[in-house]
Amino acid sequence: MGSLQSLESIAVVSQVDGVVESYAHDVGEQTSGGTSLVTINQEDYLLAMERAKASLAQANAELVVKKSRYDRYKHLVAQNNLAREQLENAEADYLVSKADLRLQEVSLGEAELALARTQITAENGLWVSERLINKGDWVHSGQKLYQLEQIEKLKAVVYVTEEHVNSFASGQGVTLTAEAVPGHYFSGHIRTIAIQTDTTRNSYPVEIVIDNPGMILRPGFTVDAEVSLTNLVAEEE
Question: Which CATH architecture has domain 10-41+123-148?
Answer without folding.
Answer: Beta Barrel (2.40)
